[in-house]
Design a protein that fits this description.
Blueprint lengths: L8 H10 L2 H7 L1 E8 L2 E4 L5 H4 L5 E3 L4 H14 L7 E4 L12 H5 L4 H16 L5 E2 L23 H16 L10 E7 L18 H8 L1 H8 L4 E4 L3 E2 L2 E2 L4 H11 L5 E2 L9 H4 L5 H11 L4 E2 L3 H11 L5 H17 L16 H18 L1 E5 L12 E5 L25 H8 L4 E5 L12 H8 L4 E7 L20 H14 L4 E6 L7 H6 L2 E4 L7 H10 L62 E9 L2 E2 L4 E10 L5 E11 L10 E10 L4 E9 L5 E2 L5 E2 L3 E8 L8 E7 L6
Parallel strand pairs: 1-3, 1-11, 3-4, 4-5, 5-6, 6-7, 7-10, 13-14, 13-15, 15-16, 16-17, 19-27
Antiparallel strand pairs: 1-2, 8-9, 12-17, 18-20, 20-23, 21-22, 21-26, 24-25, 26-27
Helix pairs in contact: 1-14, 2-13, 6-7, 7-9, 10-12, 12-13, 15-20, 16-20, 17-18
The structure holds beta-D-glucopyranose (BGC).
Length: 727
């Protein structure tokens, strides 16, 4: 075993002093491994490159034995015995999958976000992994963009809370613990604002949008101690993020105080040539290093290009050493020098795995958003005798995983069919696909229609395949793919004629543009991709075992032409309200979303009243309490989620329509009342002035509280912000 234990910075310096240039570049290189029947292999390389020190880090290595073997080669057979950093995209679980991130965002619950990250870290660390390329913090207001599924949705405020919770969950209390992972906040910065939602397209956002929307989640991750950050593939106003010294060294390191490792995105350094800012790998490597990127993920540009870049004087040895120092320090913080085999040393107990699946079921059910529920079509009657499941997602276990599945097996996921059969053992649960997810064959529709007859409810399971969202999966037509609309319309007609309620469940990595379905289905649910317990989680909701509590973290458009859409847009001089010929509207569509941010029904029936702001004035150091009475006038116990927004009527910079400041939840029995109190720190109300500097402006602030960002339904109160104490 390695004799070096360089927790002490002087030891890292000694180690750097002993390293050859190749060994240094090896520490700045991360290569992709994969697994064959004969064992692990590294694309385009051999394990000999680990032995020679040319490769110091790996990704995509799955399985504790493979990780241990690679680690052994690095530690016992390389000259300096420096352990590998092994990373993987553990995005929403490793073997046990939790809901895809956009679905998890619908919980609005930082404790749950932290808990699923903690469990994911345990499971991945037990496989020898030490770094996860998560959390993804890209705010997206454009459902065309496939990666919307990986992120927090449209609100920077939510993204900030999610960032802190995820970093806490993955990294635990001690990064060196055998069950902690180094988190990687990605993709810095503003990747979610790609032009027209097209993957990898150019980003050109204002300085203000950058500071108000896109950077704050990363600031929150840095404040939470995130170990690493990944620059985005995209360019920001012409400067690729991988080469953006102003953003990486300036904003991220100097302004936000980030001292950790910057790991490039996959092949992104070499792609600086495609961007058109580097002539060859030498220039590409020099640009990235100068910008502050420490680890080259798979492009080989550092290994191949930096020696020549040094010779040409494009980079200095100090810059290389600086990056090596950061990588070695992270390895030391991860405890890899103390014991490189600590992760993956012990298999997890069956009890831990069982507990994790229970968590996946609970979080899965809480991620599901009940968008409509006409005449209380849901929950299904407890004595239901016959239910028909129709659609290509009804018996599609592998699709339930969503676009990132780490090491999760396709058949370890519970389909809707399996979940419903388990939940309704005395009922007949029939099933027909009708059509494929995306094909053009509609010959199965007739047989599916036959199964509707005699059912007491039809559950239509529609949506996207797991790979229709995520990276490289932008959609210009984010509706139902293939022939699913034809199937749905036929089912709605057939069932409608027989007065059978049709419950439509959407599996998707984005809000789908389906106003026609929302209009006609008895109930509509957004299930996103619920993870390994999908079928059980959905059955819990449909049967009423669990009352729905998920809230959409992103607005649902009525039409693609409304995109981008979010609750915080500025009013403008001719606002949406009041409507008029010259107000900010469309002549052919409502300007409002189909479902606003925060929307989601429960099986209770909540009313909010008696908004109070106490005290109703204060200075920067004060925290006021905003409280509201909540009553459940429904017939079932349920949990209500309440959002606290503010709006400034007048400010130096035109204020957004709504700014989110808090979210609270309260569970109430039928007929019960309760008070929900949300603290509002006045310091939170600082905003960026015309000079982009944060300042607290005195004046009246409207306080708005309600069950979603639907402005028409918010209770309102006032708060007077003072800059000087009352005399
Ligand atoms: C993605 C990253 C991911 C990386 C490693 C890239 O294509 O953009 O989000 O972490 O691959 O798999």
């Amino acid at each position: 075993m390695n004799a070096l234990k360089p927790r002490d910075p002087r030891r890292i310096e000694t180690l750097i002093g002993r390293m050859t240039l190749t060994e240094k570049l090896g520490q700045l290189t991360m290569m992709a491994a994969s697994h064959t029947v004969t064992g692990p292999v590294i694309a385009g390389h051999s394990v000999g490159d680990i032995r020679s020190g040319r490769i110091g880090n790996l990704l995509n290595l799955i399985g504790a034995a493979a990780a241990r073997e690679m680690q052994r080669i690095a530690v016992e057979e390389s000259r300096l015995g420096i352990p590998l950093l092994i990373g993987l995209d553990v995005i929403h679980g490793h073997r046990t999958l939790f809901p895809a991130p956009l679905g998890e965002a619908a919980l609005f619950d930082p404790e749950a976000w932290a808990l699923t990250a903690r469990e994911s870290a345990r499971e991945a660390a037990a496989d020898g992994i030490a770094m996860t390329f998560a959390p993804m913090l890209d705010v997206s207001r454009d459902p065309r963009w496939g990666r919307t599924v990986e992120g927090p949705g449209e609100s920077a405020w939510v993204a900030e809370r999610l960032a802190a919770a995820k970093v806490r969950g993955y990294q635990g209390d001690d990064l060196a613990a055998a069950d902690s992972l180094a988190a990687v906040a990605k993709h810095f910065c503003a990747y979610g604002a790609v032009t027209a939602g097209r993957e990898y397209a150019s980003v050109d956002v204002s300085e203000r949008a950058l500071l108000e929307v896109h950077m704050p989640p990363f600031a929150a991750a840095v404040a939470a101690g995130v170990a690493a950050v990944m620059p985005a593939f995209t360019d920001l106003a012409g400067i690729p993020m991988t080469a953006h010294a102003g953003m990486l060294r300036g904003r991220l390191r100097r302004q936000l105080g980030f001292e950790g490792v910057l790991v490039s995105d996959y092949n992104a350094i070499a792609e600086l040539i495609q961007h058109g800012v580097a002539a060859d790998l030498v220039e590409a490597a020099a640009l990235a290093l100068e910008a502050g990127v420490d680890i080259d993920m798979v492009s080989g540009a550092y290994l191949q290009g930096l020696p020549a870049a040094l010779e040409r004087g494009l980079v200095s040895l100090e810059r290389i050493d600086e990056a090596v120092r950061r990588v070695l320090s992270l390895k030391a913080r991860l405890g890899l020098f103390d014991d490189p085999y600590r992760r993956g040393a012990a298999a997890e107990s069956a009890a831990a795995l069982g507990e994790r699946r229970r968590l996946a079921r609970d979080v899965g059910a809480r991620s599901i958003v009940l968008l409509t529920n006409r005449d209380d079509a849901l929950p299904l009657a407890s004595d239901i005798r016959r239910v028909t499941l129709i659609g290509p997602l009804a018996d599609a276990p592998a699709e339930m995983r969503g676009p990132w599945w780490s090491a999760a097996e396709p058949d370890a996921q519970i389909s809707v069919l399996a979940g419903m059969r388990a939940a309704l053992p005395r009922a007949e649960v029939l099933h027909a696909c009708g059509v494929d997810i995306a094909g053009s064959d509609d010959s199965g529709i007739a047989a599916a229609l036959e199964l509707c007859d005699g059912a007491q409810a039809v559950v239509l399971c529609l949506g996207e395949a797991a790979t229709m969202s995520g990276e490289a999966a932008s959609r210009a037509h984010p509706g139902l793919p293939g022939r699913q609309r034809k199937l749905a319309e036929a089912v709605l007609e057939r069932a409608g004629a027989r007065a059978i309620p049709v419950i439509a469940v959407l599996f998707s990595g984005r809000p789908l543009v389906v106003p026609w379905l929302a209009e006609r289905a008895a109930a509509l649910l957004a299930a996103w991709f619920p993870g390994c317990e999908a079928g059980h989680a959905l059955a819990d909701i449909l049967t009423g075992r669990t009352s729905p509590s998920g809230r959409t973290p992103i607005s649902w458009p009525r039409a693609v032409g409304q995109i981008p859409l979010d609750f915080g847009q500025r009013r403008g001089g001719r606002p949406v309200d009041p409507p008029g010929p010259f107000s900010s509207r469309y002549i052919d569509e409502s300007p409002e979303p189909l479902f606003p941010f925060g929307h989601g029904l429960t099986y209770g029936r909540f009313t909010l009243s008696h908004l109070r702001v106490v005290p109703d004035s204060g200075t920067e150091s004060a925290t006021v309490q905003v409280s509201v009475e909540v009553e459940n006038q429904g017939r079932r116990r349920a949990q209500e989620t309440v959002f606290l927004f503010t709006r400034r009527l007048k400010s130096r910079v035109a204020p957004p329509l709504l700014e989110l400041r808090g979210v609270g939840r309260i569970a109430l029995d039928p007929g019960a009342r309760g008070t929900l109190t949300l603290p509002l720190a006045i310091a939170q109300l600082r905003s960026l002035g015309p000079d982009l500097e944060p300042a607290l402006e005195p004046g009246a602030i409207e306080i708005l509280v309600g069950a979603s960002a639907n402005r028409a339904a918010l209770l309102t109160g006032w708060l007077e912000v003072r800059t000087t104490p009352e005399s």
